[in-house]
Structure formats: C-alpha cells, structure tokens
Amino acid sequence: MKVKHLEVTVPWGLSHYFAPNGFHPIYRALIDYKPEVVKINSLDNVKLFRKIQKDRKRFEYLFSQINKLEQKIENLNPKLIERKYKEYFFSPNMILTELINGDIEFHHSAPFASLKRPFIFHCEAFAPIFMPFAGQGNNKFLKNKDLKEYYKKIFAHKYCLGIMSHIPETLESIKLFFNDPIISRKLVKSRIGLSMNHFSGVKLFEKNSLSNPIFLYINSAHQNPKNFTKRGGHLVLRFWKEYIKSGREGMLILRYPKTSFKELEKFDIDFDFIKSECGKSIIWSQDYLSNYEMNKLISKSNFFLLPSASLHSVSLMQAMTFGTVPVVTDTLGIDSFVTNNKDAIVLEGMNSAIWQKDDDTGVLFDNYKQIHTVDDDLLSQMLINIYEAVDNSTYYNKLSQNAIRTAKSKFSGKSFSKDFWRKTLVLYQNNQKLFNKNPIHPRRKRLLDNCLISGDQWSRVFESPTQPMNRSFLGRGSVWELSGNIIQVNGNPKIELEDWSVMSSFLGRKQMTFAYELCELNSEYIAPKEIIFKDKNKLIEKLGIGKGNNVFSKVLKRFDFSPSKKLLQFIKCMRYRMKSSKSLLDIDLIIEGFHGLNIIRYFHIYYAIPQPEGQFILEKVKANSYSVQFSSLTFDGMINQIVKNIDNFEVIVSEPHLNVIISNYYGFKISKFLHKYYAILNSEGALDLNKFQKKEYSIYFIGVDADQVKNKINNFIIKNYILLDDNYLSFKIIKYRETYCAICSLKNDINLKNIFKNGDTVYFSGRSSYSVRKQVIDYLHQNQVLVVQNYHGFNIIDCMKSSYAILQSEGKFDITMIDKGTYNSLLSGENQDEVKLRIREYLNDNVTPIEKNFHNFNIIKCMDNFYAILQSEGEFDITKVDKKAYNPLFSGESQEEVKLRIREFLNDNVRLIREGFHNFNIIKCMNDFYATLQSEGEFDITKVDKGDYHLVFSGKNLEEVITQINDYIKQESKNIKVSRDFEVNDFLKEYYLPSLSQFKSNSILSFKLNATVSEGIVYLNHNLEFRLED
Prior knowledge:
alpha+beta; Rossmann fold; 8 domains; 6-stranded parallel sheet; 33 helices; 48 strands
C-alpha cells in the first residue's frame, strides 16, 4: 500500500549532534524539497526552553524519564561500549529523541537512533559513523571487536531501514567492515546536492580578470578553526609566496582564524613575507561569516583553494555552483564530484599517501600522520596547474563553465531530495508489516508537539553555525550562536558537549538562556538583573533635576536616552565605583562588528574596541592597550568618531556587517545588520543606520527576519497602491507613493492580496510608469524561449506563464506584437500542451482532401504539408499524427513526395504468392494482389503506376487474379498453321513468346509440339516448349 503520510523525526538540534554538524547544509535540500506526504519534526530549543521555564510541572514526565534512564546507564559496566555510547548520546537527548513525534527517525553521519522506531541513516564518510569512538585520521577503532559488534547490532536491527551514502567507497567500507548479509542488503547509493535556498540572495558575479585573479581559502562549513593544515592552509601560504615572486598579480583571501606561527614553523612558511603581504595581496579575515557572506565571497573568487587531506563536499559544491575553479587533492571520494582538467584542478598524491587498506577487513582508512610527506609535490602541481589556468583564459573558462554545468547536472538539491525520499518511502512501505506489530511510540503525552521548528524557520537553523560559535564575551557572561539559537552562558565556565543541551539549565548543570535574537536577552547575558526603581519619575523629582535647567540636566541632554534612564546609568556607575552592595556591573554590547569594531555601553559611556581583540576590559581602555579605541557619551557621537576616523585605522574584516539581502523587493531594499532586517525604498539610496535611527527615511520597516519584513512591505503596498493597468502583457502596473511597480503572478492569481500571499511572482519597480513597462518588455524579450520548432508548421514559444504559437513563415516571435495584430495565426495557452491542442484544432479545420484511394491510401493537404493515411483509418485527424496512431503514415512537402513514400513502403511489403503460374508471378502487396509476367523481373509498384508492364492483373484476392490470368489466355489463344521449321513472326513474338523479343525476327525455332492438332491446324497454347538454335 502506498504511503500517504510519513512523519520524520529529525533530532539534529540536540547537543550530541553538534560534533557531526547537526543542521549540516548538505541536508537542507531534503527539507526544502521534501514531498507533500512527508512532514519533518525537529525540536526548537528556544520554544522548549521557554515552555519549561514557564511551566515546569507540565514536563514532569520528561524529567522522570530522564532520571530513570540515567539510573539504567549508571548501572552499566563503565568499560562497556554501550555505556560510553549512551553517555555521549546523553540521557536527556535520548529521551527527547524518543519524544519528538514521528513514524521514523532520520540520522546522519553517526547513528544516534533510539531503536524505539524505524530509522534511516545517511553518511558521507566511514570513520565518523563510530563517533565518539573514532574519527578521520586514525584506524584504531577497526581493531575494536566490541565496538564492531555494538554498531552491528544497530545497523542489523530490524528498525534500521536503510544505510545511504553518495560515496561508493563509504558503502563498500561498511560492507567489508561488518561483513554481514543483513547489513549489506540495507546499503543504498544516493545522490547529493545543495538546496538553491543555500545560495539565496547571491548571484553569479563576473570574475576578476585573470591578470589580477582572486584566490580563496576558507575552512569547513562549520568554520572550525582547528583544521588549518588538514585543509592545506600551509600549502596555500607557500603557494602564495611563489605566486607573488613570479611577478604575477592577484589577491589571496583567507577566511580563517589566524593560526599560531609556532604551529606552522615546521611547514617551511615565510612568516615575514606573510606579514608584509597582509593588507596588500593577502586579506586575512578571522570573523565568522554568514552563509550569505560566504557565498558572496566564493562567487567573486576565481579559484577555490582546497588542497585538503579529506573531502569537503559542501565547500566544493558551493564553489562549482559559482564557477569558481576548485583546486583539490585526489583524496578519497573526490572523483564523485570533480574530474581533473574538466571542471577542477586535481592534485595527485594525497590518496596514495594517506589512504591505506586494513589487512583484516579490507577497509580503507586515512592516516593523517602521512599528510605532509607529499607537501612539496602538491605545491609543485599547484604552481604548474594554476599558472597554466591563469595564463590561458580558454583553459580557465573551460574549467569554470564545466564546473557550473557539473553542479547543475550532478548536484541538484531537488534531484537529491526526490531520490532520497523516493527510496525512503519505498523502504518504509516494504517494511511496514515488520514494525506495525510493535507499538513504536512510548507514552509521551505529545509533550513536544508545540516545541517544533515551524516551516518558515528552517533557513534560520541551516544558515547558522553548526557548532557553538562565540559571538561575544563581556563582563560576567558570554554569548554564543548555534543552530539558529543565541545562547547566553553565565560566567566563564568550561563548557562540555552535554552542557549545550537545552535541558542543561533545568538539570543543575550550566546556567544558560536560549533566544532567537541577541536583543531578546535584554542585556541579561552580561549580568543578573540590576536594581529596579519602581517609580523613576518620583526619584528624579526628589533629586530636583527632572525638568530644571541646572548643570546636571544640561549634561543629561547630551545623552541618547531619556533623562531618567541616563540618570539611573550614572547613579549605577557611581555606586559601582564606590563598591556599593546594591550595585552591579551595567554593561551592554550595542553593536557587534561595526567596521570591525564592537560598540559597548559601559554604564552611561560608549566605547568601541576592535572585535578580534577579545572582551571589553575597562582597565585596558584606561591603559590605552587596544590597537584602536574610541569613547563617547552618546551613541551618535560614537558612530561619528568611527566614520570620521575610518581611514586612520585598519581592522581586517571580510565583508561589511551591513549586508544587502534583497536589492529590489517591490521597490524596497532589504538589508541585514546583526540579527535584524531593515527595508527602505530603493529611491532613498543605501541604508544608513544613523538616518534610520533618526527616522529620516520616508518609509521603512524592521523585522527579525526577511520574511517578516516582506510581509510588512506587502501589507503596506496592498493598503496604499493605485492600479494603473490591470493587464499589461500579463503584468499589473501599480503605483504607491512615488514608486511604480509591475507585478505578475506565476500562479495566475488575479487578486493582488493573493499574489502577495502566494508569492512566486515576477516584479519590477521604478520611478515612472515608462521605466517599469520598459523593464517588463526587456524581461519578456529575455525570457521568451523557442521550445518547439516546426510543430506542424508552427513554432512554439514559452514566455512567462503562457505559451504561444505562430507560423514559421511569420519569422521571430515578439510578445510585444501580440496586441498589435501582427500575426495572422497566433495561438496561445497556459502551457505547451494546451497550445499544441489549439494547433491541432486549427489544422483539423484546414484539412483539404487531395486524392482518394491511391493504392488504398488517401492523400490530404493540411496547411503546407501533405499526408497519406490508409483509407480504412477514416477521416484524417492531426491529433492521431502526434499520438502516432496512424500506421503507416506518410508526410511530405508535396503530393508527389508523399506518393513516393507510399510506393517505397509498398515495394518493401511485397510478398510472392505464386511463382510461374502460366508464366506469371502472383504478388501480394498490402491488401492487393498483382500478377506480372515472369519475364518482366522483380515487381515494382511504380511501374504499375507508370504502365511500364506489358501485362499486369490486380485484384483484392488471389482467386480474382487467377481468374483474370485464365480469362486472358483463353481470349488470346490463336489458330496458327506451322511446319516443322518456320520463321518466327511478329505475332508469335508479341503474344506468345515475349521472352524471345530480345532475338532477331528471322531467328529459327525448332520446337516440340505440345499442343492440340486438328485437321493440320496446330492450336498453340501457353504450355509451349521450345529450344533455340543458332
């Protein structure tokens, strides 16, 4: 029975999944393009945190289950693999995995299955499957028999439906290692690909000239700073020195936390050269980059340098999508992605150096100790191959364009998702009987149903760091970003893996707060709540400074906020300095990464310090220990100082932190700054935060994500638009304020509210009606595609949401000519099939019979084409031509061409029925019978039509033709007087012996009479036998 609904538990947001990069971008396509029958359930940590915080009693069942499981784990032998596995898994995570509703679980990289219901497993590499007992770079786990048996039980379990991978070597390693027929049967090859949403907002930029190319080196998807040399960073630095020394120009961008020079001393790196080039030919950014920023950086680069020891598929597919030529090693699995000299530069030697075969199992394992044995060889190959690409634009362009084509054809996220879910649904369907007998859901009371990630929040979790990323450390706490969550940690404790669990705070471990945005923490991430004055105005009145013009009041006017708020900040500062027991530190991170600086409010004063230089410490400010620092009593004053002095200091940053997310959304520009999104009219230029704070923009919107801002823009337009043209080439032309907009729904919505609600639109904006109409025309010209050429004399064109057909003879299609009546025969529809139907209807109305019963065929003219069909097929219908319902069918540009086709067909279908019947051959051709004299040679229907046969008989059956032959012989028999020798006369030659016509008329025949003789008269008949003499 076909699966109609499947709920899938995806526990990737739990703390044990951070090591294998929980919401790994490689799996986003499976969420974005899932089929309708699939529903994804994944825990939203913020929702759960807030619900437990609000009503802990409601979750008593959850805590009781955790306690029971912890006791069971505690009773296990500490040396057992099972105990170590479950301790790493962490009992709260195990219970939460079970409680997330779902028919099956979906795990990746390492099999953290609850084994309480079916699960699907997908992985890229072999070694990480055994996390935390093994990882890439060593093979000790291969010798651990207990480990092997424990994982065998997981994969051979009846609830394991399938083990998928896109790397053939990984599937082979699993097969060899376990050597178990049950597990081997579960191995499934999958596709792989990235969701197009992964590239949202980033276009394919034009690359720099090869005379000054950009080279990019970045770390992995999770931007972990600990694998610089494993990704070949040391080789990149060595390469760059040689590249610059060769006299070439270019830029090397490194997106990576700077590695200690001491760690790199053994790799023959010229540190003086690196230092001298930083800020010149080397841009070294240490900041964490958002997905948008990373894609933008990759898109602008010419080469993507990744001479790594292991495969990094996401980075590789990102580069190929933008045509940024990858430079990679031949490590295991790379040939599933690229081909040397076709779509990448592949450096040889890494595979043979580090990948070895285990003697006992035959499994390939990587030995990272051997990485640097091939450094010099790899560097040499980098120089030779990159120089060739830089110096030969034809070669480079081939690599770049092929990379784009490979990404589109092999790494489509939609194809990956379609393939994965199709196979998953089949596996689930085929095994339903197995697990339907056993209840798979524990008594869970559906506790977590309101704590799941909603459909519009997937981009948040997938575009956030997959491992904890420190965003700031100020005062008494730190702030981290992880899987779409902002996490506040009190103090500066050592944080273990399990501490990142949302349950940590409720189980007496680390005190953490989970939020979506930094601003939601309300400065509580710095310290516990300060003292609160219940009535600030009364306090101000008592002090006599609320409304007066005294000195204190004038000072307060210099502050950004209300006098009451500034007063409290000032009082707190005084009390703090006097070490009052009632006062706590009041410090707040206002802006992170503004031109590379963090702006901090310390009580009533603003400070700015370089972001890479760590936490804010007042003593360092007083000692002037920061490389750059500013202070001001007002926020505006701080911003002005930074902008004014921006040319006098240098803080290396990769991209401005103010990013344009959507350059034109119905005439608005949407930008992201920190964790908020802003929208202003395009006509008002680039977003200026100072103007925004002063409300100097005529229209503006702000939201926590792009969708929220879009909705505000949509609502504004719906309330304020004026309709100028309801149907301009399928577009609506509207005006709001001073902005004109052309909007077309690709879903055929007429109502403007529905158009905004359903999305999927094409739109243009400008400052005049003419400009948007011109944009519409340009767009339509660019997007009219000839999809079918010469469909029964018509060309079919797709344009926007419609298809059109015009006669080939009318030339190139121009959609703007439709309303002008330029085309004589214009047909249109919503799609190609509908247009083809219109063409067939049009053609059937224009059919002209030309000739009936030409050898059982009717010949018809339809437009400029001629057709022939069997009479038995009835009336001609062009639809049957498309469906290939006519057999046979002949067509051509003229009547004679069609007849020729018929004759050729008939000659190919000749069958000899009788040979030598009274010197005639009788032939069947299709449904007709023919007889010609044997002497006339092979039968040819063309000779019948031309009258080239001396004698030919035809009929509808064999008997009819035989009768005609016999009648002819009787009628043509003659009485001839002959002697034993006589001269052959013309009469005899013509009527009785046509086979002798090649001989001269005076030839002498001697023959044996085989005829009737009566009274000296010989009656010659068709059985005459003769012999020719000289």
